[in-house]
């Protein structure tokens, strides 16, 4: 993979005959690649003239640490007066932009894909949020599970899915408030969930905090604040419109959270079914995070071009891709 200093990347854009989409990281590149391939299959688009690159390929200026999102934004802003800007599109995570979080009821003030110059922002927090549909996540997890009663697991997952999105969203907002997103990464496990007889999902926040604060060196004071912020946001989210948690939820954490919830459903159904194997989650753990994302992104792209879910269709307009249809 070629590496560029910002100036060298601009020169590369200037002399290139292709159109370029610059994304933040590996998973964004996977998702947009699948999407363009589906567009090619459905519209006879020539994608050989479109290059998708990751900001991981751009070297930060000497002595500075620049995040991938800022790298994309910086490149886009630096070529606004250049004639080759029309061959460039930056695609970045929206993160929390445009969400009115401080009001009594959390609102999405954008509700669409926002465009700012040559930059297109994701519909939700990040690219993972496109995958937060039961028809995508549930279908892939069920399909990859080798457990004999996967249909029952899927039904339970469907029943708790809305609760899971609310609780995952509240967790991400609390972590963002206290700048703990990095510290609690990959800390969610299936045993931090309880599913009652009415299919209500409960995130065992006290158990999770007890384990996490000792392993990740988080103080008692911060742990108490975190718990208070979690329940504060959870209550506000329950007053919000139905679809908001799906788009506001932290993308990376949300996918890990929903995966853990699916595993909790699997264990619950295994116990109910008298399944004797000691580690029922081994029937899904084998998939791995990278493969799981790839499978989800591939299905999302297919469903998107069938008109069954949201996707950044503005890509075609901004890059004038329609001119390249054979």
The coarse silhouette is globular
Query: How would a textbook summarize the main sheet?
Result: 5 strands, mixed
- First-last Cα distance: 30 Å
**Which H/E pattern describes the elements?**
HEHEHEEEEEHHEEHHHHHHH
Share in β-strands: 5-15%
Number of helices: 12
Q: Which range best describes the helical content: under 10%, 10-25%, 25-40%, 40-55%, 55-70% or over 70%? A: 40-55%
Average pLDDT, rounded to a whole number, is 94
Mind telling me the C-alpha Rg?
Answer: 21 Å
Strand order of the largest sheet: 2-1-3-7-6
Poorly predicted residue ranges = none
Counting helices, strands and paired strands, the structural category is alpha/beta
Total DSSP E strands:
9
Describe the protein's architecture and organization:
The protein is of the alpha/beta class and 326 residues long. 49% of the residues lie in helices and 9% in strands. It has helices at 6-15, 26-43, 68-78, 134-144, 150-177, 205-215, 220-238, 244-248, 251-272, 282-285, 289-305, 314-318; strands spanning 19-23, 50-54, 88-92, 99-100, 107-108, 115-116, 119-121, 193-195, 201-203. The strands form 3 sheets. A 5-stranded mixed β-sheet has the order 2-1-3-7-6, with helices on both faces. It has a two-stranded antiparallel sheet with strand order 4-5. It has a two-stranded antiparallel ribbon with strand order 8-9. Helix 4 (134-144) packs across helix 11. The longest helix has 28 residues, at 150-177. The chain is globular, with a radius of gyration of 21 Å. The two termini are 30 Å apart. The relative contact order is 0.16. The mean pLDDT is 94.
């Amino acid at each position: 993979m070629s590496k560029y200093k910002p100036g060298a990347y601009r020169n590369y854009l200037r002399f290139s005959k292709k159109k370029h989409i610059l994304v933040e990281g590996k998973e964004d590149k996977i998702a947009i690649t699948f999407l363009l391939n589906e567009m090619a299959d459905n519209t006879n688009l020539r994608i050989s003239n479109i290059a998708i690159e990751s900001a991981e390929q751009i070297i930060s200026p000497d002595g500075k640490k620049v995040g991938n999102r800022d790298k994309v934004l910086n490149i886009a802003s630096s070529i606004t007066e250049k004639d080759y800007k029309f061959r460039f599109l930056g695609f970045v995570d929206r993160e929390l932009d445009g969400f009115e979080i401080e009001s009594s009821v959390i609102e999405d003030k954008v509700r669409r894909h926002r465009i700012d110059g040559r930059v297109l922002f994701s519909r939700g927090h990040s690219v993972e949020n496109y995958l937060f549909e039961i028809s995508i996540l549930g279908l892939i997890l069920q399909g990859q599970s080798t457990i004999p009663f996967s249909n029952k697991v899927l039904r339970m997952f469907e029943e708790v899915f809305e609760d899971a999105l609310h609780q995952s969203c509240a967790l991400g907002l609390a972590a963002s408030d206290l700048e703990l997103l990095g510290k609690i990464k990959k800390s969610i496990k299936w045993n931090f969930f309880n599913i009652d007889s009415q299919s209500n999902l409960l995130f065992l926040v006290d158990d999770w905090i007890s384990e996490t604060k000792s392993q990740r060196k988080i103080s008692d004071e911060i742990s108490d604040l975190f718990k208070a912020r979690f329940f504060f946001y959870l209550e506000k989210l329950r007053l919000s419109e139905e679809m908001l948690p799906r788009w506001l939820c932290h993308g990376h954490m949300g996918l890990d959270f929903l995966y853990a919830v699916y595993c909790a459903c699997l264990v619950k159904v295994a116990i109910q079914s008298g399944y004797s194997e000691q580690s029922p989650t081994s029937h899904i753990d084998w998939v791995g995070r990278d493969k799981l994302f790839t499978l989800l992104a591939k299905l999302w792209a297919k469903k998107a071009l069938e008109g069954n879910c949201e996707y950044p269709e503005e890509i075609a307009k901004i890059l004038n891709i329609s001119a390249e249809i054979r």
